[in-house]
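Protein in question passed on here:
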Amino acid sequence: MAANVQWDVFSGPDGDVIVRMLYNEQETAFGGECTPISDGSFFYSAEELSSCLADKR
């Protein structure tokens, strides 16, 4: 079994960074408490991912 996981990172002219994840070349949502930049979007701000994916021990 193999899987392909890809994170695409985009930086805008204002310095904002957004990220999307592809699983087997299909856009997929980050799970858990991560909130996308807008409803129905697969893009997340880098700050949001840093927060929601942080180790919360």
In short: The longest strand covers residues 5-11. Strands lie at 5-11, 17-23, 26-28, 43-45. Residues 23 and 40 are 17 Å apart (CA to CA). The chain has a mean pLDDT of 92.
